[in-house]
Specification:
266 residues, mainly alpha, MetI-like fold, globular
């Protein structure tokens, strides 16, 4: 066996080991969520859906899930729209302080969530929005916008700038060029940004915990359940949340791979 083949085999073994290490707790949570016994033991007890039935009957979970869906959908649309505008501004224009503009636009994910949550709590309390869905939506837009901007900005960086100029030379207005050239080219990134920002909003709990008040999202409700007694229902809820989140992420990745970047003909 050649050294190159040995290196390839070792690399694959390393990748499989890392993924197994990461996925083992998640797989365990999935398995335990179908276990009839309250406390997991080896071997596991009988297969049962009792914990999923319990969460379906919990009066606190449907409102939290509904809030999560409303917030996630609203945040994805607004954050993607603003992210597209920010990315196109970076792509289209050259202006003084552009590096500062980019640094500020991409800053929120680098701030510790506790600090950002406290800042949003103080700000939203001052303007009278604390404890409302609007507070969660505003806070999540701040967090999610950089993800949308980064995805769309990456897509625009792969576009030949002469395509838009060619549309102008052929008589298109700036809005027509936007509609017929920029938007079709960036559509995969826009759709991917919608799914990614929805997934980020769906999973975020720290900032939502600071600003939500009684308008709990599903992650905040799970955190409240942890503060009581540990229940197998948490495994069932976690399995559902993980499935939804991974579905959104996989859809985003699949959409990004749908179309290769176009280039202007030589």
């Amino acid at each position: 066996m050649s050294l190159r083949r040995i290196g390839t085999v070792l690399l694959w073994c390393y990748v499989v080991t890392v993924f197994a290490f990461i996925m083992a707790p998640i797989a365990t949570s999935f398995i335990v969520s179908f276990n009839f016994d309250r406390f997991p033991t080896l071997p596991l007890g009988a297969f049962s859906l009792r914990w999923y039935q319990d969460i379906a009957q919990d009066p606190m979970l449907p409102p939290a899930f509904r809030n999560t869906i409303i917030v996630g959908f609203t945040v994805s649309v607004i954050a993607t729209t603003l992210g597209f505008a920010a990315a196109y501004t970076d792509y289209r224009y050259r202006f003084a302080g552009k590096q500062v503009y980019l640094a500020l636009a991409l800053l929120p994910p680098t701030i510790p969530v506790v600090i950002l949550g406290l800042a949003m709590l103080i700000f939203l309390t001052k303007i009278g929005l604390f404890g409302t869905l609007k507070a969660i939506i505003i806070s999540h837009i701040v967090v999610c916008l950089p993800f949308a901007m980064a995805l769309i900005r990456l897509r625009l960086s792969q576009m030949d700038q002469s395509l838009e100029a060619a549309a102008w030379n052929l008589g298109a207005t700036e809005w027509r060029a936007m509609r017929d050239v920029i938007l079709p080219f960036t559509l995969p990134a826009i759709l991917a940004a919608l799914f990614i920002t929805m997934a980020v909003s769906f999973d975020e709990y720290a900032i939502a915990w600071f600003v939500s008040g009684f308008q709990e999202t599903l992650p905040v409700r799970i955190l409240a359940m942890f503060q009581g007694q540990v229940s197998p229902r948490i495994n069932a809820i976690g399995s559902i949340v993980f499935t939804i989140t991974m579905t959104l992420v996989i859809l985003a990745q699949a959409i990004l791979l749908l179309r290769r970047p176009a280039r202007a003909p030589d």
